[in-house]
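To whoever picks this up:

The parser on our side crashed when reading a file containing two proteins. I've narrowed it down to the boundary between the first structure block and the second sequence. Both blocks are reproduced below exactly, byte for byte. First block:
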Amino acid sequence: MFDYPEVFSLIRHLGWLTTTYFWFANASLAILLVFVLMTFIGPRGSKFTYVAKFSMFYYLSSMVVSLLAPIFILRPKNVVNCKLGGWFIGKCTYLLGISWELRGSHLLRDNVGGIIISNHQSSIDILGMFNLWQFMDRATAIAKKEILYIFPLGPVAWLAGITYIDRKSPKDSYKTLSKCVRLMKDDKIKIFMYPEGRRNDSRSGFLPFKKGAFKTAIHAKVPITPIVQSPLYFVDPKKHIFDSGHVILSVLDPIKTDDLTDEDTDMLMNKCRDLMLTEFRKLSSEIESKLSNMSWMKEKRSGMYLKD
């Protein structure tokens, strides 16, 4: 027999929670609008405008994960949460006027666990990753543990399925990478990693790669898929330039690790780096030639589109 007073009390409490949630959503959207308007203040090269654009992206990311937190709580650590959050955050692409040209998307659609590696130039790379997730069935990323303590983004991203790694502790790093091995083998999850370890705004090449991604791939016997991102010619931290722009994301053929051992780690790492560096230089030359084409420069583009 139902206890009707308790049922009605629960409904009232849920009503209060719903009202609070929508109030928070409306307030968040109002603040986002302020950030968007701030990006139009000041001339090109203004530090204020430059910071405002990055701040808008960071705020939108935190806002999205906060609003989606109730869903993440219902299915914690489910990597499908990452795809959902990435879809919403990826819309910041339109606010910033960035277009992404994805080449080789078919190489991401297989239902196979593995590691995806990419060069890392700016936090804008994360926006490209969020857009890429829409072409993969199950994917997540490894992030440095310091992000976990950035509220609310860090804790809610953990709920969404992001894995954090303590790079200062070899023991903890090993445990984290061992967990990733299980995720890739048992759950067929793709894990996104930046082997440079930190951002590199140089347009001439890459930083030395760290071994973690390659050791993990060899232990799990899963393929490594390199993705090369063209130079971010429209972002210049020294001159406070953040224009609209175009980014090419080139997916290279997966590299199998079935027959490799720990002794092959350096060979695998150097092979991936050489392949990616060669592709990066090709993309750099292509972008440079496009920048001298006035009709291409005036062309309206935004969002993600495929060019297979």
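<<boundary where parser fails>>
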Amino acid sequence: MQISSRTRGVNTLVRQSLAKRTGLTMAHYRAPKSGLAREAQAKIDATFDCREAQKCLEWIQTLTGMDLKIECHEDKKLMMNFFYNVLKDGTVLCRFMDTLMPDDRKLDFSTKAFQPTNTVAFASARSRERIGIFLEKVREYGITCTSSFQTDYLYEKTNLVQVCTCIRAIGIQAQTREDYSGPYIWPKKAKENKREFTQEQLQASKQTISLQYGTNIGASQAGLSFGKQRMIID
């Protein structure tokens, strides 16, 4: 049975009206995970660190000057919800990333992606777009794909642990930049310590047998007097 375009339009208006009244999007109506998917999600959520999330938010607040009204929760679920609600629309993340980018790579906040809208569908699409813009700037900043995250990890709240990992990686990378003026609260990034050897040293190393290949140094049967002699009979 085919559904007419008029029926589709009515259904769309009903969904938008309901979302406007309740503040819920289609993602909130998705059936909860079950089985292996639920177990996998529970394992990811179990690794969420409340203190690490709080540290990320405090660092973002310091750099941007925005008042995020940070709440401290020992309960993982409460802290995850607060962390998600602060960052989910991508606005705070874009403002944060803009403070770290050089002048010739600043974000343009006059674009449509950063304009407010009363349409729920547009609001959802623009939130995803803003997260995508943030991730693009993250790659430009030198963060590897393994330290970044996918849009749904944040917007669908499926892996907030990876979001914290990404912010932490940005902090470590920022501390290596000369133009960084924020607090140094992240671990120091390891630096390359390249060694140079002369040709004589390289040749001398070839004369040494590595212990990985085994050695017979110290192997001796001197002093062995017990047991029967080994007899070789033709």
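After patching the parser it read the second block fine. The chain is about 50% helix and 0% strand. The mean pLDDT is 84.
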